[in-house]
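stage 2 :: seqdesign
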C-alpha cells in the first residue's frame, strides 16, 4: 500500500477540564514540558501541518508556533465542534489537503504510525472515517476525517443537535484501527490529577525528559 497524503493535524483542547478543576490541561506539565507539546511531537511528523483547537484567550498559547482556532459553534458542544472547526479551517486555508487527523491534547503517547494505520483502515474497509482503538475501547476523538464531510457535520451539530462522535459516525460508516495495550495504552488520556501522576510514571518508562 502506498503512503497516504499527509493530513492536517488537529489537536483538540476545547474542553472545560472539569475533572481537573478547570485547569487548562493542554498546558499541564509532563516530564518538564506542556502536555500539548508532547502531543505535537508525536503528531507533527505524521502530518502536513498542525493546528490547535482551543476556546477562550488564545494568548496562553503564544509560544506555540501554529494557528489556534476556536469552536465556531457556541456553548462548548464537545469534540465534534473541534473537529468541525479543523475541517472548516483546512477547507479555507489548506484546500490542497483532503483529510484532518484529530487527537486530544491530553493523549501524550499516541503512536507514531497513527495516520498510516487510520488511512489503511479506511482503504481496507472502504469506509469514509476511521478512529483508533486499544483493548476493547474505541477512542472516537482520535480519528481521520475527510474534509468533504464538513457540511454534513455542521448540519448534524447545528440543526440536529448531535453531540456524540459515535452517533454521527454511525450514520456514515466507521473503520477502526486497533493498537495493543501490553506495555502502555497509546491512547492513555489525562482527566484527573491521578491520571497526571500516572502519566509521569509512563513518561519515565518511555524515556521522555525535558529535551525529548
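stage 2 :: out
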Amino acid at each position: 500500500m502506498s503512503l497516504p497524503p499527509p493530513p492536517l493535524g488537529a489537536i483538540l483542547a476545547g474542553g472545560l477540564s472539569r475533572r481537573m478543576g478547570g485547569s487548562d490541561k493542554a498546558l499541564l506539565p509532563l516530564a518538564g514540558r506542556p502536555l500539548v507539546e508532547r502531543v505535537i511531537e508525536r503528531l507533527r511528523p505524521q502530518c502536513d501541518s498542525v493546528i490547535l483547537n482551543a476556546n477562550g484567550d488564545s494568548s496562553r498559547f503564544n509560544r506555540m508556533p501554529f494557528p489556534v482556532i476556536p469552536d465556531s459553534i457556541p456553548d462548548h458542544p464537545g469534540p465534534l465542534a473541534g473537529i468541525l472547526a479543523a475541517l472548516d479551517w483546512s477547507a479555507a486555508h489548506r484546500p490542497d489537503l483532503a483529510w484532518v487527523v484529530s487527537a486530544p491534547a491530553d493523549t501524550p503517547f499516541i503512536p507514531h504510525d497513527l495516520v498510516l494505520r487510520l488511512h489503511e483502515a479506511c482503504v481496507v474497509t472502504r469506509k469514509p472515517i476511521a478512529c483508533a482503538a486499544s483493548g476493547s475501547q474505541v477512542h472516537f476523538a482520535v480519528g481521520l476525517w475527510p474534509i468533504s464531510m464538513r457540511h454534513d457535520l455542521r448540519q448534524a451539530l447545528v440543526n440536529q443537535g448531535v453531540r456524540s462522535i459515535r452517533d454521527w459516525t454511525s450514520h456514515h460508516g466507521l473503520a477502526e484501527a486497533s493498537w495493543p495495550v501490553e506495555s502502555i495504552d497509546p491512547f492513555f488520556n489525562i482527566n484527573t490529577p491521578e491520571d497526571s501522576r500516572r502519566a509521569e510514571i509512563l513518561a519515565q518508562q518511555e524515556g521522555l525528559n525535558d529535551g525529548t
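stage 3 :: structure notes
- The longest helix spans residues 79-93.
- The mean pLDDT is 91.
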